[in-house]
Amino acid sequence: MGRRFYRQSAPTFDGPRVNDRIRVPMVRVIDAEGGQAGILETQVAIDMARENGLDLVEVAPQADPPVCRIMDFGRYKYEAKKRQVQAKKKQTVVEVKEIKIRPKTDVHDIEFKFRQARKFLESGNKVKLTVRFRGREIMYANDEAKRLVELIKTLEDVGEAESYPQREGRQIVVIIAPVKRKKGGEKAPKKTAAPTPEAETAQETNTNEEPASTDEEVASTEEEAKPAVDGDE
């Protein structure tokens, strides 16, 4: 029957156990280069780490015996925190900003609201444009939808509508999403349609054609190549 070692419960504080916090008598040690140093007494492993100006860090407390690694714990915490910050930066939270418009809103108010929409889109947020109607204003819903489409075109360099304006009860709603951009900040190019087979055939024919020689040029070339003939031999 194999030798059994004492296990300790998982750490109750934030982070792994380090140095004197490791209470078990024996541990399996991984050295600073990542090699196996074998099973050692815990105090011996701690002394080994301290001789090199490093720490003994418990990395697998549930193993039998627990696995510890010799490392610079301060640098380990710094690198771990740095990775967390970078991962958080990569998580993009897209918010939906709502802008409300009334039918026949003044031109200056429209311009102001769409400047706001542009800022939201440039910040990576979606914009929800809502046109609300009161009373008989609903009769002009189709006209307002068309006007909204034209207004959205002024934002096409920073956003694009996810769908045509939809009617929801007594209001018209459209969601504008920010356009995807390349790393250089340029707008990602749209895919161009592939050329038709007829166009490819025509292009290939034009490429393979060679300028035809005229009959006069052929005749002239033959006469120059023909040797002169003397008189009666």
Characterize this entry briefly.
With 233 residues, the chain is α+β, with helices and mostly antiparallel strands. It has helices at residues 42-51, 73-90, 107-122, 141-152, 197-208, 215-225, and strands spanning 26-30, 36-41, 55-60, 67-71, 96-101, 126-132, 159-161, 166-168, 171-178. Strands 5, 6, 7, 8 and 9 form a five-stranded mixed beta sheet that branches. It has a four-stranded mixed beta sheet with strand order 2-1-4-3.
Tell me what the structure shows.
The chain is α+β, with helices and mostly antiparallel strands and 233 residues long. Among the domains are: 19-86, Ubiquitin-like (UB roll), CATH 3.10.20.80; 96-178, Translation initiation factor 3 (IF-3), C-terminal domain (Translation Initiation Factor IF3), CATH 3.30.110.10. The protein is built from six helices and nine strands. Strands 5, 6, 7, 8 and 9 form a five-stranded mixed β-sheet that branches. A four-stranded mixed β-sheet has the order 2-1-4-3. Strand 8 and strand 9 form a beta hairpin. It is rod-shaped, with a radius of gyration of 39 Å.
